[in-house]
Please model this.
Amino acid sequence: MKITSAEFLKSVYPKNEYPPGNYPEVAFAGRSNVGKSSLINTLVNRKGLARTSSSPGKTQSINFYLVNQAVCLVDLPGYGYAKVPHQVRRQWSPLIEQYCQNRKTLCGVVIIIDARIGPTPLDLSLIAWLKTLAMPAIITMTKIDKLSKNKIFKVLQQTSEALSIMPEALVPFSAHTGEGKRQLWQKIVHLLDISKKCAPP
Ligand SMILES: Nc1nc2c(ncn2[C@@H]2O[C@H](COP(=O)(O)OP(=O)(O)O)[C@@H](O)[C@H]2O)c(=O)[nH]1
Ligand SMILES: [Mg+2]
Model:
């Protein structure tokens, strides 16, 4: 994917309005600190577009980024961080739930899993819930730069078994080396292609 432009559109907090749904959207979800913002920055070749942080639980907003004036990448709040009060956290955050359920222009969700940890119960329940909505999901395993080839192979195997999918369906990724970027874009573009519900205007 050749990136010609990438710009911040809007941060949405509870009770704020979403930006107008003028573009097809792909959202990014995962545990707090898993590397969502870094992954988005890597995808669009911009170091500081999505704000990254080494302290988890910070981003409790939904952030919209417009790429190539054609598609919106949506950084969802991280879930599973223990220090966020339970009613804010609920399952994975009401913000995520409302957005995934109601956003007409949402074409699919990229679920980001830490390759060193594998899928957590919250990851698994989010994946299962998206399935009930018939919302397409792309599963990516990030921070693979921290693992040996052997360990990567093993975690892909285990994760695919846990999710009952083929290991090839998983995208191994690293925001540090850029590995997996091409494959992830391919899957995102495919998702946008097959999703007729929200073709760009
Ligand atoms: N080694 C490694 N560290 C990463 C990778 N992606 C993110 N990180 C680090 O993980 C921390 C959290 O990243 P961030 O993108 O802010 O996570 P978010 O909370 O999910 O948006 C930061 O310290 C990043 O530098 C990766 O692919 N490899
Ligand atoms: Mg973030």
Q: What stands out?
A: The CA atoms of residues 31 and 79 lie 5 Å apart. DSSP finds six helices and seven strands in the chain. The mean pLDDT is 89.
